[in-house]
């Protein structure tokens, strides 16, 4: 399991943004993960493609994984792809045509993935399993931080891992929300998660040390 950087930056020092992300990547992260919310599909409001472009313009070359919690989702996909996204994932509930949205992501040069809320069934994968690069399971309800890990996610992760192994496909399995080394690491290890979130504490620690 590798850590990835979840973007939770205050932007009070936008000029130092690229440097802060670079410092966190030096701590061992391998992917920059953007949580993009629109105050429509889920509560709260974060940022748009311009922030992604800021990282690329600074010189960040690590993969950028953009998790879109927006509805409708298709309109903003080309903008994030142009801004430098490597992966773009979306929620099936946010798309009128899942396969069309997935194809739009790939047509714009990015890898695609589906994100599953805690109550969203994995059956959405039945007819697109061979067309996704990432499966991300939310272990909290999306839209706000500080929530506790939902234990039922563990069984869902096992089911997702089984689907991936039986397919023989190279698909990343990720989990996000309330994950802590102290209470989840041993439970998640057998499921072979590709990425775990490294959140605000690492960013703040890195900023304060430079």
Helix segment count? Answer: 7
Shape: globular
N-to-C SSE string, H for helix and E for strand: EHEHEHEHEEHEHEH
Question: Poorly predicted ranges (pLDDT <50, ≥5 residues)?
Answer: 1-10, 198-210
Strand order of the largest sheet: 7-6-5-4-3-2-1-8
Name the structural class. Answer: alpha/beta
Q: What is the number of beta strands? A: 8
Rounded Rg = 16 Å
Helix content: 25-40%
Summed over residues and divided by their number, the pLDDT gives a mean of 81
Terminal residue distance: 27 Å
How big a fraction of the residues is strand?
A: 15-25%
The major beta sheet can be summarized as: 8 strands, parallel
What's this, in brief?
This protein has 210 residues and is of the alpha/beta class. Helices cover 33% and strands 20% of the residues.
Could you explain the architecture of this structure?
It contains 7 helices and 8 strands; from the N terminus they run βαβαβαβαββαβαβα. The chain has helices at residues 17-26, 49-58, 77-83, 98-107, 153-167, 181-188, 200-208, and strands at residues 2-6, 32-37, 64-69, 87-90, 111-116, 134-138, 172-176, 195-198. With 210 residues, the protein is an alpha/beta fold. The chain is globular. The longest helix is centred in the last third of the chain and has 15 residues, at 153-167. α5 links the parallel β6 and β7 (172-176). 33% of the residues lie in helices and 20% in strands. The model is unreliable at 1-10 and 198-210 (pLDDT under 50). The chain has an 8-stranded parallel sheet.
